[in-house]
TrEMBL record:
The keyword Methyltransferase does not apply. Residues 1-38 form the signal peptide. Residues 39-146, 147-246 form the Gnk2-homologous domain. Belongs to the cysteine-rich repeat secretory protein family. Plasmodesmata-located proteins (PDLD) subfamily. InterPro entries: Cell2Cell_Antifungal, GNK2, GNK2_sf. This is Gnk2-homologous domain-containing protein. It comes from Salix udensis.
Length: 261
């Protein structure tokens, strides 16, 4: 026997203070989720050469990292050189930069950089040169001046499972990749169900940025073929695309990591 459904409402009216609290909790959880994703580890690159504790290099290395963290609360990119004065010993010079992804809020940029600086010290203790890429930010330092010098070496590539015989997908993907290759700084692109973004590091000229992204886009087709989603990180730029549902590249992955030292 079927029961009769009652026509009265079971919804409750939530008082304004409780509603405000629920909204605050929702925002907090959303912000926490974004922050966790921002700190996802991509790769670390450590030089084999190491410096001694209390050496001239360490005297400049620690202030450089502190300056990177401090600056990230005000700007998405900055570069530094410590110990390069005329009277300073050359073995103590330390160059560095950081960059956040262009769609981050500045508070999330700062928190991501704080995490990256902590991780780079753990991943590359006493290294004369190191780079660390998280999902949404990047930190690098060296004992030689690398600032503004084009680097298109492949650092990391990640490819999802392939999409076979989907002509529409290939067209949409190629449209997105062609658009991303024109990025100056940070760029987001979409075509139908395919989306992507790309970014060059702030020390690159516009010509070098174009050259770096052209190489990154070429790597997609050479190394990932018909993957539904892929990410390529070169020395000074990166690009990523995905079909709807594959943003996290979480299924069917093939990946490789390339380090230069």
């Amino acid at each position: 026997m079927l029961r009769r459904l009652h026509s009265y409402s079971t919804h409750k009216t939530i008082p304004a203070p409780r509603l405000a609290l629920l909204f605050f909790l929702f925002l907090s959880l959303s912000n926490h989720d974004s922050f966790v994703k921002a700190r996802i580890f991509i790769y670390a690159d450590c030089s084999q050469e190491t410096y001694a504790p209390n050496s001239p290099f360490e005297e400049n290395h620690n202030p450089l990292l502190a300056s990177i963290v401090s600056s990230s609360s005000q700007a998405y990119y900055n570069s530094f050189a410590f110990g390069n004065g005329s009277s300073a010993p050359t073995e103590g010079i330390c160059y560095g930069l950081y960059q956040c992804r262009g769609d981050l809020r500045i508070t999330d940029c700062s928190r991501c950089i704080e995490s990256a600086v902590t991780q780079i010290s753990l991943a590359c203790p006493y290294s004369y040169g190191a780079a660390l890429q998280l999902e949404s930010c990047y930190v690098r330092y060296e004992n030689i001046d690398f600032l503004g010098m084009l680097d298109k070496k492949l650092k990391y590539i990640k490819c999802s499972k392939s999409v076979n015989n989907d002509v529409e997908f290939y067209k949409r993907r190629d449209d997105v990749l062609a658009d991303l290759s024109t990025a100056m700084g940070f760029k987001v692109s979409s075509s139908g169900s395919v989306e992507g973004y790309a970014q060059c590091f702030g020390d690159l000229s516009s010509g070098d940025c174009s050259s770096c992204l052209a190489d990154a886009v070429g790597r997609f087709k050479d190394l990932c073929g018909s993957a539904a989603a892929a990410a390529v990180y070169l020395g000074q730029c990166y690009a990523r695309y995905w079909e709807s549902g594959y943003y996290d590249l979480s299924s069917g992955l093939i990946h490789a990591c390339f380090l230069i030292h």
